[in-house]
């Protein structure tokens, strides 16, 4: 219907000879449903250009519309100059078949059709199991990937990691220290090493395979064992969350193929770096920062910005149209340097879309729980899922806007009742399925589904809500705010509850019962599709 109304507006615009440039108007639902089903601000945007009152322009628009009375029952002017459209019940009723015929595909759009999208997320180095601190990143990244897929894009989920450098050396030395203890040597983990139980488990694996024969080896063999075992654990955790990566990109490959040296040399050729105090500095002052930034330390070790710039250039070289980064709030001050670097290399940094999320506080028994991977006083994602389940874990990470702080209350998450928002949505789907099972057993619902019989306000309003689903999928993808989809599904569940309170399915005239059955099928389908985009199951019964 939005496309139809857009055609009305565009045709009317073409008849205004004094309009030199069409405005970027919007078509949206009015906040107050009594104002109609859809509204546009086109008249107000033209006020300055036409030097007329917006309401006068709106009236002029209405006289130029060629309205199809089968689609639109009323067009009115509201407020300062909004043009509001009221849809006919007949059009709304007919659209129900669109939902039931498309089924599992209803809601999919072509908004990003033909676009190749790379979503990089998690990207935790293999130094320990995934913790709750990684959970929001993982679930956001996967959900954004699903949203792009539902909008027609070809999506690659990528995990970027570094298996070299100081962190990995300390990891290897920590495992060796524990291994030494297991074979009776006087050894310990290094100062600042990793102290978790998982380090002992890895050391035990080394002992199982080699007895005491590798004690004299350096840390590398222990690092390799740790990396392999930890990565297997990480992938298992992600799989539990219904997350499956397409590619793993090793930072070390950027050194091996010369990308790091090439990037630095390009900056030198363009006069964007200089040497000072033994370090290499990037002229970030030229890009609006207050001071320049170190790219290579005086030790010869690059700061993470240099490989990150090379990595993002590599993404674009690989032919991706859109590159989404899911970063924690600690990247807010630094990712602009990477974008500046990519732009300096001759790429379009607008192709890189950075989603920055705030961190998570775990609350248990009413108290915040502080976490540290090194000190091993962290809550792993597996432990969290063991406590509250996979669906609840995903949902709680998505229920707040990424840019807001998230307090994950384990006690609230464990509460299996309608007070828990994820169960509220799942109950709605399960309840519809229960009704449909009863309908299937009843001989009273064997009529022909005459959708024109769906005239009750609760029926019409529910259908209208269902029809918003494709637009919500597109909006949620563009804004990268999955909580918008959650809010929408809650609205669908609430509309269904009103419908079921007001409209019986069994015990009414057969054709009406059959029509209401179709409405139930469509509602269940939208709930299932929406939960699926969130990576959450839609149970048949609870």
Can you describe what's shown?
The protein has 542 residues and is an alpha/beta fold. The protein folds into four domains: 86 residues, Gyrase A, domain 2, CATH 3.30.1360.70; 135 residues, Isoleucyl-tRNA Synthetase, Domain 1; 157 residues, Rossmann fold (3-Layer(aba) Sandwich); 75 residues, no CATH class. The chain is built from 22 helices and 15 strands. Strands 7-6-5-11-12 form a five-stranded parallel sheet, with helices on both faces. A four-stranded antiparallel sheet has the order 1-2-4-3. Helix 6 packs across helix 22. The protein starts with a helix and ends in a 9-residue tail after the last helix. 39% of the residues are buried. The mean pLDDT is 93.
How do the helices and strands line up, and which of them pair or pack?
Layout: H1 2-13, E1 27-28, E2 38-40, H2 42-45, H3 47-50, H4 54-64, E3 72-78, E4 82-87, H5 89-94, H6 96-102, E5 116-120, H7 132-150, E6 154-161, H8 166-182, H9 197-210, H10 220-240, E7 247-250, H11 252-256, H12 259-269, E8 273-276, E9 279-282, E10 293-296, H13 305-317, E11 322-328, H14 335-344, E12 352-357, E13 360-364, E14 367-369, H15 381-388, H16 390-398, E15 406-409, H17 410-414, H18 421-441, H19 457-467, H20 469-479, H21 483-502, H22 510-533
Parallel strand pairs: 5-6, 5-11, 6-7, 11-12, 13-15
Antiparallel strand pairs: 1-2, 2-4, 3-4, 8-9, 9-10, 13-14
Helix pairs in contact: 6-22, 7-16, 7-20, 8-9, 8-10, 9-10, 12-13, 13-14, 15-16, 18-21, 18-22, 19-21, 19-22, 20-21, 21-22
Give descriptors for this structure.
Isoleucyl-tRNA Synthetase, Domain 1; single chain; four-stranded antiparallel beta sheet; 542 residues; five-stranded parallel beta sheet; alpha/beta; 49% helix; flat; 22 helices; Rossmann fold; Gyrase A, domain 2; 15 strands; 4 domains
């Amino acid at each position: 219907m939005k496309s139809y109304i857009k055609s009305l507006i565009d045709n009317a615009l073409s008849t205004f000879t004094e309009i030199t440039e069409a405005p970027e108007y919007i078509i949206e639902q009015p906040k107050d449903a009594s104002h109609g089903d859809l509204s546009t601000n086109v008249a107000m945007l033209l006020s300055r250009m036409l030097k007329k009152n917006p309401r006068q322009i709106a009236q002029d628009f209405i006289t130029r519309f060629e309205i199809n009375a089968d689609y639109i029952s009323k067009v009115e002017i509201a407020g300062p100059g909004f043009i509001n459209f009221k849809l006919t019940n007949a059009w709304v009723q007919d659209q129900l078949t669109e939902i039931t015929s498309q089924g599992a595909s209803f809601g999919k759009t072509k908004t990003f059709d033909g676009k190749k999208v790379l979503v990089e997320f998690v990207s935790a180095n293999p130094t320990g199991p995934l913790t709750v601190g990684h959970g929001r990143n993982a679930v956001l990244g996967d959900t954004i990937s699903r949203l792009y897929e539902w909008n027609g894009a070809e999506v690659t989920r990528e995990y970027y990691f570094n298996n070299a450098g100081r962190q990995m050396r300390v990891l290897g030395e920590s495992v060796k220290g524990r291994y030494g203890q297991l074979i009776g040597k006087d050894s310990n983990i290094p100062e600042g090493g990793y102290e978790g139980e998982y380090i002992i488990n890895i050391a035990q694996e080394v002992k199982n395979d080699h007895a005491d024969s590798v004690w004299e080896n350096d840390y590398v063999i222990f690092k390799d064992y740790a990396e392999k075992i930890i990565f297997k654990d990480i992938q298992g955790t992600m799989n539990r969350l219904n997350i499956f990566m397409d590619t793993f990109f090793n930072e070390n490959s950027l050194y091996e193929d010369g990308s790091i040296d090439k990037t630095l040399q390009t900056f030198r050729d363009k006069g964007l770096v200089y040497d000072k105090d033994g370090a290499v500095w990037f002229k970030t002052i030229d890009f609006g920062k207050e001071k320049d930034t170190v790219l290579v330390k005086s030790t010869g070790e690059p700061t993470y910005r240099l490989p990150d710039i090379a990595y993002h250039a590599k993404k674009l070289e690989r032919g991706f149209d859109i590159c989404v980064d899911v970063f924690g709030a600690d990247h807010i001050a630094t990712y602009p340097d990477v974008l500046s670097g990519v732009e300096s290399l001759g790429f379009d940094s607008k192709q890189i879309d950075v989603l920055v999320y705030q961190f998570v506080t775990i609350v248990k028994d009413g108290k915040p729980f502080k976490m540290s991977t090194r000190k091993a006083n962290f809550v792993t994602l597996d432990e969290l899922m063991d406590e509250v389940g996979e669906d609840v874990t995903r949902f709680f990470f998505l229920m707040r806007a990424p840019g807001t702080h998230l307090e994950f209350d384990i006690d609230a998450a464990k509460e299996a009742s309608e007070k828990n928002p994820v169960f509220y949505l799942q109950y709605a789907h399960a309840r519809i399925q229960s009704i449909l099972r009863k309908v299937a057993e009843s001989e009273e619902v064997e009529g022909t589904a005459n959708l024109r019989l769906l005239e009750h306000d609760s029926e019409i309003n529910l259908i209208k809500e269902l029809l918003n689903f494709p637009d919500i999928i597109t909006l949620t993808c563009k804004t990268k705010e999955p909580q918008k989809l959650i809010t929408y599904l809650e609205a669908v569940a609430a509309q269904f509850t009103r419908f079921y309170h007001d409209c019986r399915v069994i015990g009414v005239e057969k054709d009406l019962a059959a029509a209401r059955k179709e409405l139930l099928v469509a509602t269940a389908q939208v709930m299932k599709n929406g939960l699926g985009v969130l990576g959450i199951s839609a149970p048949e019964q609870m």
